[in-house]
Amino acid sequence: EWAERGAAKIIKDVVDPTTGELTKHVVKMGIKDFKFGEQLGDGSYSSVVLATARESGKKYAVKVLSKEYLIRQKKVKYVTVEKLALQKLNGTKGIIRLFFTFQDEASLYFLLEYAPHGDFLGLIKKYGSLNEICARYYASQIIDAVDSLHSIGIIHRDIKPENILLDKDMKVKLTDFGTAKILPEQPSNAADGKPCFDLYAKSKSFVGTAEYVSPELLNDSYTDSRCDIWAFGCILYQMLAGKPPFKAANEYLTFQKVMKIQYAFTAGFPQIVKDLVKKLLVRDPNDRLAIEQIKAHVFFDKINFEDGSVWDGDPPE
Ligand code: ATP
Predict the structure, then answer these.
(1) Predicted confidence band at 10 (pLDDT cuts at 50, 70, 90)?
(2) 158 is catalytic
(3) Which ipTM value was assigned to this complex?
(4) Residue bearing the bigger pLDDT, 26 or 103
(5) Whose CA is nearest to atom 12 of ligand 1?
């Protein structure tokens, strides 16, 4: 059920050379239509390679997953979820686009939008830390992207700087939906007929990354959509401090710190961001700020989340 074996169909406009008439043709594209280039990254169960379409010269990132490895490691479910989530999110601001999926005997391929500026961890490392202006620019896009995915019933569950890519305009693109949770649609009474999801539905899956994992998953063995808000708080802290708030020599010690909410602000950490981080890195998810409250925080005073302008404009110097 992955995709038509070895091919994906695209609709192409073709001009008839005799009549000059424009017609739509279904064309099958396969891996042969792309020239593979440098390796862009390596995940725990995939490798990501730059690919150029032979016909258009357009660049893509191709995520290649070995079928044998996926089956052996019992990761097939992750790939199915990743594909479904990306398909549901296609065209959403701040989310990496999935164009096609292919397969051959050995591998599955995701043809993704290419993000040429690497990941957000690379950006933080390059500058050591970000100033308040840069932090506001990236944080506003990250939280708006998280808002969009929650509103269509998807919880990412592994938001971290490595999974935040930077596109050609240095805008945020969330990626790696392998451990996402796709919520079932609830009956809706809303007059606008908008789909409704239970964002507080408990999930017991132990997924995520030690430094960004929520305390409720460690203490009470459950999470819901608010684990993405916790991770956002950790990343906001990291932007200013240059390192994640909870970090220790190994995973066990990192978990201990998370469970005790044991972190400290670095010298010179801006007061306004401190206030927001303190309201995000809260033990009880019921006391953690919700997305609307985050957007209304004084740190985002000059950001208009309503008109989409958070995605306009150039990134700060
Ligand atoms: P993980 O170990 O985090 O589960 P994964 O196997 O799911 O990883 P990804 O996180 O999707 O793989 O990708 C691995 C790396 O490849 C990323 O950290 C990034 O550096 C690079 N990469 C992924 N997608 C793209 C893209 N669309 N454009 C540019 N680089 C990308």
Answers:
(1) low
(2) yes
(3) 0.94
(4) 103
(5) 43
